[in-house]
Amino acid sequence: MSILDHIEFAVGDAEVSRRFYELALAPLDIVRVITLGPERTRTGGTRHGFGKDGYPSLWIHDNEPPGAGTHIAFATRDRAIVDAFHRAALKAGGIDNGPPGVRTHYHEDYYAAYVLDPDGINVEVVCQYHCPD
Question: Which of 23, 87, 89, 93 would be a feasible disulfide site paired with 115, CB 3.0-4.6 Å?
């Protein structure tokens, strides 16, 4: 079981970010599970939940200032998925913040890629151990 249940953060425009995350997270098999309209949210903005197996573990919402320095990392067991995420995220409009590669300053098996989403949030996908080349 993961130690992480869910993550939520504010974005500037829920629809722009929804489109970004739908495309960027497709290589990880993470999909939009649910959308809640403004009448059902604390902030009065739109809220989108993404996840796997029907459980929304990543939430984004608007109508609140995006948080500076927000970072989210998704785990995978395959370096090819790190590469696919990076390509998909750039195609979806993300800004390269570190191409796929080994980050030896963390450890010898830390293979990751970083992309800034439409609000400047640093999104990472990482394969840390026993990842095929």
Answer: 89
